Amino acid sequence: MQHSTDGFSASAVRRTFLSTIAIAGLFAVVVSPNIKADQIERQFINPATGYTQVVSVTANGVTTLYISGQVSEGDTIEAQLRGAYTSLRKQLTDAGADLTDVVKLNTYIVDYEAAHLDVFRNVRNEFFAETNRPASTLIGVAALALPKYRVEIEATAVLTSKAIGTTK
User: Fold this and answer.
1) Does the global pTM surpass 0.85?
2) Model confidence at 2: pLDDT above 70
3) Which residues form the domain of 88?
4) Which of 13, 28, 88, 140 is deepest in the core (most CB within 10 A)?
5) How many CA atoms, within 13 angstroms, populate the side-chain half-sphere of residue 156?
């Protein structure tokens, strides 16, 4: 396991950072003067061991989906990217959404190098239209949860009450 100079592992720092972002987002919803705590609905979609694949938070007719990092097995970065995007699409479908609802992507690639950028872009283009793409961050990391995973993609999606439950 690689450690930063202050003794924390990269994955621990990443988890803490992401948890802080999620808590800040929920805090912003909770302290809004127009939203009462009993007006916030949470739904846990596709629970797994130790986490949930998708957490849905609805308030004031807006639903935000927080999709856990999706991984896939494969011999290449390209295969793992394609598999992770396919898994992301499935999680969104299970939550009543699709890729057009995604507003933010975070992609983690183990041992990232510049040559991965074109592969990443080409595969992403297979799943997202040329216009209205989500905000996106690509991060090179030392490792993911298991050595066989070299790519992980997490997302945030937003739906309005009109979009929820409709066929797109």
Assistant:
1) no
2) no
3) 42-160
4) 88
5) 14
Section 145-157 average pLDDT: 98
Domain with residue 56: its CATH number is 3.30.1330.40
Q: Does 36 score more than 60 pLDDT?
A: yes
| Between 66 and 160, residue with greater pLDDT | 66
Say if 57 falls within a structural domain.
yes
- Three-state SS sequence of the chain: CCECCCCCEHHHHHHHHHHHHHHHHHHHHHHCCCCCHHHCEEEEEEEECCEEEEEEEEECCEEEEEEEEECCCCCCHHHHHHHHHHHHHHHHHHCCCCHHHEEEEEEEEECCCCHHHHHHHHHHHHHCCCCCCCEEEEEEECCCCCCCCCEEEEEEEEEECCCCCCCC
Residue 25: the pLDDT is 55
Any domain includes 8: no
